[in-house]
Specification:
The protein has 459 residues and is of the alpha/beta class. It has two domains: 2-51 and 383-441, Urease, subunit C, domain 1; 52-373, Metal-dependent hydrolases (TIM Barrel), CATH 3.20.20.140. 30% of the residues lie in helices and 24% in strands. It is built from 13 helices and 19 strands. Strands 1, 2, 3, 4, 5, 16, 17, 18 and 19 form a nine-stranded mixed sheet that branches. An eight-stranded parallel sheet has the order 6-9-10-11-12-13-14-15. Strands 7-8 form a two-stranded antiparallel ribbon. A hairpin with a 4-residue loop joins strand 1 (2-11) and strand 2. Helix 7 packs parallel to helix 8. The chain starts with a strand and ends in an 18-residue tail after the last strand. The structure holds N-(aminocarbonyl)-beta-alanine and zinc ion (2 copies).
Length: 459
């Protein structure tokens, strides 16, 4: 099967021109102006932006967490991602403390295999690093192509590791050519603040936010950056939210250290005023919590200073009945919010259309940088001969409104209800196949492939 996309505005991190893309099977064969080729199927992209499929490197699908499971399966989550132009996701496997990485891999693989609609890979979250786990790092890298390892400096008593384990893990991951990613907040401080608020009878969602002040994130981000520097292991901070944390990363540049930084769409667009006095704030109970307007300004600036490299979602949806588990106690509200479907359109509308970022930066943040950092480039993350034909066509002028009534995520509220956006994903190709067209999904459960990744390379 061959496909010819004609007369679109082709955007990559280095290109911006009106041209054509010719695809055979799963791969792009050629790109240029006025290609003189006939294909089985032609898509007229006149007036549309043609860009690499999105890569969201931070999602939690069907994840056991806080006494429940995140509500999108690999099927519903990756399908919703496709509707929004994200063709690849990277999910997190969680090692159970006292158990091996392989057991966790088998469990997650079992849930995803034959289920995903879009392409996917896994990071491996190491929650118990010991002499038994050490040799498994190499197995993950070499046999499974899992080259990034996740650590939690918070969620004390559940997922958190201490600095001793962090140092030892980073030494081993460096040896194997991998990368360590981190949820960087100070777990002990948060644990204390949660307990104190509860003891004082302060139980509403707002106290989730007040239990994780900026300093908890700034301190841990600095500590992680130091351990990364000492061990020489490449480091990536997930869901960075605030000025203090970004300054820790900025300071490290003085000694010529680079830490990769991901923020998430919600931290750019939403702020802590969502946490009022009622339970509605539970919609945005996530860790770290939403911050202040000054932090949003820092993050937008950090993007253009090349300090923030990726915009992800940390998609971790829970239906309202699940959020109600914490009705009388904020610490029992499952942490996370739904966004996998809307990251690309939100960032385009609020970022590109409002003049905060260029189109080239948009492609970097939503696709190319994640592909490079996580060992998927150039198969994914760009439009080039031999790359997978993961391609989105966006109508840059079409206006639409976000709502739980129309989204495809398995969650009964929208964190962005009523938001009016300009720019709509119209058509999505995944490995050469039209996956989304005219608001319909054309590929089935099981079409999504597991992606083995290369070792980390610098960009
Ligand atoms: O609130 C969040 N972020 N939930 C998912 C788990 C995590 O910390 O990323
Ligand atoms: Zn996290
Ligand atoms: Zn997460």
């Amino acid at each position: 099967m061959s496909v010819l996309i004609t007369n679109g505005r082709i955007i990559t991190v280095t290109d911006d021109f009106i041209g054509d893309i010719y695809i055979e099977g799963e791969k792009i064969v050629s790109i240029g102006k006025h290609l003189d080729i006939t294909a089985d199927h032609t898509i007229d992209a006149t007036g549309q932006l043609v860009m690499p499929g999105g890569i969201d490197p931070h999602v939690h699908l069907d994840m056991p967490f806080m006494g429940t499971f995140s509500s999108d399966s690999y099927e519903t989550g990756t399908r919703a991602a496709l509707f929004g132009g994200t063709t690849t996701v990277i999910d997190f496997i969680l090692q159970k403390q006292g158990h091996s990485l392989q057991e966790a891999f088998d469990e997650w693989n079992g849930r995803a295999t034959g289920t995903a609609v879009g392409d996917y890979s896994f990071h491996m979250a190491v929650t118990d690093f010991n002499d038994g786990t050490r040799p498994e790092i190499r197995t993950m890298v070499e046999e499974h192509g899992i080259t990034s390892f996740k650590t939690f400096m918070a969620y004390k008593g559940a997922l958190m590791i201490d600095d001793r384990q962090m140092t030892a893990l980073m030494q081993e991951v460096r040896r194997q050519g991998g990368l360590v990613t981190v949820h960087a907040t100070n777990g002990d401080m948060i644990d204390y603040l949660v307990a104190r608020h509860k003891a004082e009878g302060k139980l509403s969602p707002r106290y989730h936010y007040l239990s994780q002040p900026e300093i908890t994130e700034a301190e841990a981000s600095g500590r992680f950056t130091d351990i990364s520097h000492y061990t020489g292991c490449p480091g990536y901070i997930v869901h960075l939210t605030c000025e203090g944390a970004l300054n820790a990363v900025r300071n490290a540049t003085i000694r010529n250290q680079h830490i990769w930084v991901e923020t998430c769409i919600q931290y750019l667009l939403l702020d802590a005023s969502r946490y009022g006095d009622d339970f509605d704030g539970a919609k945005w109970v996530m860790s770290p919590p939403l911050r202040e307007k000054k932090d949003q300004a820092t993050l937008w600036a950090g993007i253009n200073q090349n300090l923030v490299n990726v915009v992800a979602t940390d998609h971790c949806p829970f239906r309202w009945e699940q959020k109600l588990m914490g009705k009388d106690d904020f610490s029992k509200i499952p942490n996370g919010h739904p966004a996998i479907e809307h990251r690309m359109e939100l960032l385009y509308s609020e970022g590109v259309r409002k003049g905060r970022i260029s189109l080239q930066k948009y492609v970097e943040l939503t696709s190319t940088n994640a592909a490079k950092i996580f060992g998927l480039f150039p198969r994914k993350g760009t439009l080039a001969p031999d790359s997978d034909a993961d391609i989105i066509l966006m109508d840059p002028n079409r206006q639409h409104t976000l709502s739980a009534a129309t989204h495809h995520m398995n969650v009964d509220y929208s964190a962005y209800e009523g938001w009016q956006l300009t720019g709509k994903i119209q058509t999505v190709l995944l490995r050469g196949k039209v996956a989304i067209d005219q608001g319909e999904c054309k590929v089935d459960k099981g079409y999504g492939q597991f992606l083995k990744r290369h070792r980390h390379i610098h960009i």
